[in-house]
Structures are given as C-alpha cells and as structure tokens.
C-alpha cells in the first residue's frame, strides 16, 4: 500500500517539473514544497508532500488566473489577485498517530486499514486535481505566448539574416496585424456583457478568436441563421410553451420543439456575499471545477457540489439563501459543431461560460428572473461542451436558466 501511495504522489510531483513558475511579486510567491525522503517515506510523508505540492500548483494557477483577469479588466495584478480565491480544496484530516503507529494489536488492524484507504483516496483526488490544473496552466501559458507580440528584429539581425535582400523592402514584423489571445478574450468579454440597447448579440466570431480556432465547417440547426436584429424583433412569451428539457442536441431527428432548456446540473453554494460586497470575487469553482472538492462557504459552513435535475425551464440551486453566490456546472453533447442562439435568465446577477469562454455577463442590478433576459449566439463544438453558470441571490429567492434554440 505504501508503495502504491508513493507512485500516486510522484505523478503530480513529476508533472510539475517542466512547468515554468510564474514570476510575480515576491510577497505572494509560494514556498518550495518539502522533498519526499528517498528511503523510509511513510504514508503520512506521502500525504504531506502531496498536499504541499498541490498547494504550490494551486497558487501558481491562482496567479495565472489573476494575470488573465488583470489583462481583461485592465487593473493591477495585485488587485486581480485579491479578487480570486485559492482553488485549494478542503482536505479530509487523517489520523497521523494511527498511521505512524506500529500495529501489534489485531483489534487495530481494521481502523488502521480504514485510515490508509482514506489517505490513499485523498492523494488520488489531489493527483487528479493537480493533473487538471497543470493541464490548464499549460493551456494558459500557450495562450499567453500566442498573444504576446514577438521580439522586434534589430537592424543588425535583419542584415545578417540569410534571407536579407537589400533591394527589397524590409520584412514586416510577425504578428503586427494579429490580435493576441488576451486581446481576443477581452473583446469577447465586452460583447458578452449585457447591453440594454442590444439584447441579442452574436459572439461566435469572438469565441473562435479567443479559442485560437478558425471558421470550421458546421451544420446549423433551423433558426441558427437568424441575425441579432431578427432575434430582437421576435415576440417572446413570458415563458416558451414549446420546449423540452435535456442536455443532448442532434442535427437530425431531434424533438420537434423550438427550445431545449438544460435540465441537469451540479450546483455548489452558498458562498458569502453580505451586502453584495463579493459581486466580483472569484470563488474556487469559478477558476476550476472539481466536483469532488469541498470549500468553506457562507458562515464558514462547508459546501460541496450537489446533483440537481428539473423538468422546468428554470432551476433553483440547492440551499438557496439571501445574499449568496452559487455556481452550476453541466456538460451538453452535440453530434455536430453548431452556432446556435441561447436564452439566458437569472435572479439576480449572473455570468455564463461555455468551454471556459465568457458568453454572458449580466448587469449588477437586482432583478427578477426572465427567460429571455439575454440572447447570445454562441459556438458549440462537436462532442461535449462544458458550461459554468455563476448566479447571485440578493434577497428573496434565486433562479437561473439556459435555453438553446433548436427550432426545426
């Protein structure tokens, strides 16, 4: 068992090695985790070293997310850093004394085995989270590198280049006309933001630019060709009567309805928001979705993800309370890549991300739920599409909805 735990621990430790640390202020730089003893490492040593490595990875991840937020909002890094909470989950405590104890009494074998299994389970969860964070860190680094303008060539470098021809015009600097990844994400965020003058907005081009993809061939459902102006002119009922609920969209043979509302979610909360002071605070689920994690919530109460399913067009998160923040997560499956209109409604403020890209940012005002509060034409990729929904409850009750126009 000890050898198995050691192999489990080494995965995040080894995966972390090639990732270059992000250099920011020394005030928030994390300490190096302790090294695992080469010989004689105990289960407790493995658990503690894995925890320290995960804390380091979570801190690097937080700083990268803060850098991204600082670029999008054009604010100081330290201000952005303070608005993002650590994604380090609350770990279940292990009985260190029992795990270190030499077992001689057969009556203690069962309890000792139970503690070993708990430690192994926690390390497995840490390995999975570390691997996901490291993968996302690498993606963020690639996006930053793609969005960073290349170093300008000096005159000496141009002249010494083998391709240099003095009879021709100097070569154009690569990337001069290309918008960076962070700039594309900023443009997408601006179009995702609620606009009282234009309720319907097409953000498909910005989503592709932010994701670094082109314009792939795709099969669109009937209704996807509607322009923003046409969507604005449509007469909506307070609630669509011609809809079904589900999480699967097919290009042929689907239900003969106009709208499909997402019926299955995992929700987590409440997170504290006294007098709405945390409207812009990023709680852990906003930076990484870890369905097995537990975090401190409102009033210090531990919160975790809970399954939610409904047969209605709107959902109410578990443990609904006033002045709180909730998150909802789901995955929607498409048999083809499609550009479709979605209807978003929330009580109160909400943000929606599809495949980690912002598609809806509502205003800050307190408001009742409306099924068609915001209309966005978004790009769904073939296969699974990840959706994260953040919703605030100011006072009274809360609700949120996401509908996809799949009209034939």
Structure description:
The structure is a single chain. The chain is elongated. It has two domains: 2-147, no CATH class; 182-405, Jelly Rolls, CATH 2.60.120. Strand 6 (294-296) and strand 7 form a beta hairpin. The protein is of the alpha+beta class and 408 residues long. Helices cover 32% and strands 22% of the residues. The strands form three sheets. Strands 3, 5, 8, 9, 11, 12 and 14 form a seven-stranded mixed sheet that branches. The chain has a six-stranded mixed sheet with strand order 1-13-10-15-4-2. The longest helix has 39 residues, at 109-147.
Topology:
Elements: H1 2-16, H2 43-73, H3 77-82, H4 96-100, H5 109-147, H6 155-160, H7 181-192, E1 200-202, H8 204-211, H9 228-233, E2 243-246, E3 248-249, E4 259-262, E5 264-272, H10 284-287, E6 294-296, E7 302-304, E8 306-309, E9 324-334, E10 338-347, E11 350-354, E12 357-361, E13 374-380, E14 383-393, E15 399-405
Parallel strand pairs: 1-13, 2-4, 3-9
Antiparallel strand pairs: 4-15, 5-8, 5-9, 6-7, 9-14, 10-13, 10-15, 11-12, 11-14
Low-confidence spans: pLDDT under 50, at least 5 residues?
A: 1-26, 148-160, 163-180, 218-223
Gross geometry:
elongated
Please state the CA-atom Rg, rounded to the nearest Å. 25 Å
Number of domains: 2
Which key features would you list for this structure?
alpha+beta, elongated, 2 domains, 22% strand, 10 helices, 7-stranded mixed sheet, Jelly Rolls, 6-stranded mixed sheet, 408 residues, disordered N terminus
């Amino acid at each position: 068992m000890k050898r198995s735990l050691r192999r489990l621990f080494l995965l995040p430790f080894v995966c972390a090695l090639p990732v270059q640390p992000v250099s920011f202020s020394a005030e928030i730089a994390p300490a190096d985790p302790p090294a695992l003893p080469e010989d004689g490492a105990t289960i407790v040593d493995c658990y503690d070293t894995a925890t320290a490595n995960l804390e380091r990875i979570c801190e690097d991840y937080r700083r990268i997310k803060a850098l991204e937020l600082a670029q999008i909002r054009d604010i100081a890094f330290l201000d952005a850093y303070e608005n993002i909470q650590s994604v380090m989950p609350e770990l279940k405590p292990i009985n260190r004394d029992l795990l270190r104890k030499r077992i001689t009494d057969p009556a203690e074998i069962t309890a000792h085995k139970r503690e070993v299994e708990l430690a192994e389970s926690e390390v497995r969860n840490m390995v999975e989270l570390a691997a996901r964070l490291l993968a996302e860190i690498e993606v963020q680094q690639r996006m930053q590198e793609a969005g960073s303008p290349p170093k300008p060539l000096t005159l000496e470098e141009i002249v010494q280049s083998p391709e240099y021809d003095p009879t021709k015009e100097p070569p154009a600097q690569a990337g001069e006309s290309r918008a960076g990844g962070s700039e594309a994400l900023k443009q997408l965020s601006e179009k995702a933001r609620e606009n009282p003058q234009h309720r319907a907005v097409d953000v498909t081009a910005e989503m592709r630019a932010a994701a670094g993809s082109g314009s792939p061939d795709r099969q669109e459902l009937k209704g996807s060709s509607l322009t923003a102006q046409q969507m604005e002119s449509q007469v909506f009922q307070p609630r669509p009567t011609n809809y079904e609920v589900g999480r699967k969209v097919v290009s042929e043979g689907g239900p003969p309805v106009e709208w499909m509302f997402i019926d299955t979610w995992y929700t987590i909360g409440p997170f504290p928001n006294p007098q709405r002071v945390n409207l812009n605070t990023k709680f852990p689920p906003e930076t990484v979705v870890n369905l097995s994690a537990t975090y401190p919530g409102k009033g210090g109460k531990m919160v975790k993800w809970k399954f939610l399913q409904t047969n209605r067009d709107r959902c109410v998160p578990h443990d609904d309370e006033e002045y709180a923040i909730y998150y909802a997560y789901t995955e929607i499956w498409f048999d083809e890549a499609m550009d479709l209109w979605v209807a978003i409604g929330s009580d109160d403020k909400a943000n929606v991300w599809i495949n980690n890209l912002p598609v809806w940012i509502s205003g800050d005002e307190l408001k009742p739920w409306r099924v068609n509060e915001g209309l966005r034409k978004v790009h769904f990729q073939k296969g699974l599409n990840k959706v994260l929904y953040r919703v605030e409850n100011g006072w009274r009750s809360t609700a949120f909805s996401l509908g996809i126009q799949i009209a034939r």
